[in-house]
Write a structure and sequence with these properties.
The protein is mainly alpha-helical. It contains 3 helices and no strands.
Length: 81
């Protein structure tokens, strides 16, 4: 994630420009990277969970084998509250 992307998201979420606060931008960029890394790990774990659920199912007909579309749908569903 670039600094410009982080700044645009901040401005969209909060309605004010942080360009005049360089320390704030650096702090925000570090925070955004931590959040992004945590979300990537959660998404990867979700895909592995779906695969494990299918692999450990005694009746494979109960579940269809998960594929990329299934993982994408589950990842997108994480954003729904």
């Amino acid at each position: 994630m670039t600094r410009d992307e982080i700044t645009r998201m901040w401005e969209k979420a909060n309605g004010w420009n942080i360009e005049s606060w360089p320390k704030t931008i650096d702090d925000l960029a570090r925070f955004a990277e931590l959040v992004a890394a945590a979300e990537r790990e959660a998404c990867a774990a979700l895909c592995f969970h779906m695969w494990d659920k299918w692999m450990n199912s005694e009746d494979k007909s109960e579940f269809t084998r998960p594929d990329a579309e299934d993982c994408a749908a589950q990842i997108r569903a994480r954003g729904q509250v």
